[in-house]
Amino acid sequence: MPRIPTVELDRASGEVRAIYAEFHLLMKFPAAPNFIKSQGHNASVAQGTWDLVRNVLISGNISRYEKEMLFVAISHERKCRYCEAAHIACCRMLGANEKLIHSLVYDIEGMRDHKLRDFLLFGLRCSRNPQSLTEEDFATLRKHGFDDADIVETIAMSGLAVYANIMADAIGMDADDMFDQVSAGAAGG
After folding, report:
1. Cβ-contact 177, 184 below 8 angstroms
2. Residues 6+ apart with CB under 8 A from 25
3. DSSP one-letter code for 175
4. Does some domain include residue 3?
């Protein structure tokens, strides 16, 4: 049971409704998810969260698909069930198959795509303990063609995932039913 109830569309202020509408449109979900609706009590927080999602997850040099994978890996490791379910649904919606999703959760080290593997491992290390990053970690990403802009984006994505995990876990959000619908639609379509 969530500790903070969601603010449904019919009770949201005009400013919050606009945030919900953009979130729904750009994230390509059937509706705004509980994640943003639980923040609808405070338009400033909802806007700040949406700005992060829009500018770090959706935009940038690195594909949303790859960043969604990083979100899943970080959320699984941090045991954020809400974010893991949400971003597995996003991965499926963007074309990830079950083998890839299994790798994100259980076997990143065994991934055959070394560029993706090293991106994910860097992001995980950053989310765990950014002080532990070494010059070798940065050199590994550069070897795969990541430039400084890409590396900064990876660090920001790790920070966004941790922020979202904290918000979801502190509020005690339940996974949205639409995550199953999105996943089923992706599998069937």
Report:
1. no
2. none
3. P
4. no
Instruction: Report how far residue 105's alpha carbon sits from residue 124's, in angstroms, rounded to the nearest whole number.
Output: 12
Q: Does 4 reside within a domain?
A: no
Quote the number of domains for the chain.
Answer: 1
Residue appearing with tokens 């603010």: 7
- Residue 144 CA to residue 115 CA, distance in Å, equals 6
Compute the average pLDDT of residues 59-84: 97
Strands (E) in 18-162, as ranges, are none
> Which CATH number is 153's domain given?
1.20.1290.10
**Is the pTM for the entire model greater than 0.90?**
yes
Helix or strand (DSSP H, E) at 133: none
Residue 84 lies in a domain: yes
What does the pLDDT look like over 121-136, one tens digit per residue?
999 999 999 999 999 9
